[in-house]
Design brief:
The protein is mostly helical. The chain has a domain at 26-84. It is built from 2 helices and no strands. The chain has helices spanning 3-18, 28-62. The chain is elongated, with a radius of gyration of 25 Å. It starts with a helix and ends in a 30-residue tail after the last helix.
């Protein structure tokens, strides 16, 4: 580590010590609201793959697909594909 890195690290450490620490004084109602909000967001994030799988399965069955068949997009993904977690590669 050269002296510039050491000086920058020492400056960050000193600045961190100089800043006062403030304790949060949220009420019990605010903490309960934050907990409910956090759990709702986590439920959506964890539920997304299951919902996406169900929608893909239903779309496959609606297009004359059968269980244990491989389904693929024959064209690039566009706005009409209604997946919850799309990862299209943009082609311009």
């Amino acid at each position: 580590m050269n002296t510039k890195h050491q000086f920058a690290l020492a400056a960050l450490f000193a600045a961190n010590l100089a800043l006062p620490a403030f304790a949060q004084t949220d009420s019990a109602e605010e903490l309960a609201r934050q907990t409910i909000h956090r759990r709702a967001v986590e439920a959506v994030i964890w539920g997304m793959p299951a919902v996406n799988f169900q929608r893909m399965k239903q779309a496959m069955l609606d297009t004359k697909g059968a269980p244990n068949q491989v389904v693929y997009w024959s064209r690039p993904v566009n706005w009409k594909d209604q997946t919850l977690t799309p990862n299209p590669i943009r082609s311009t």
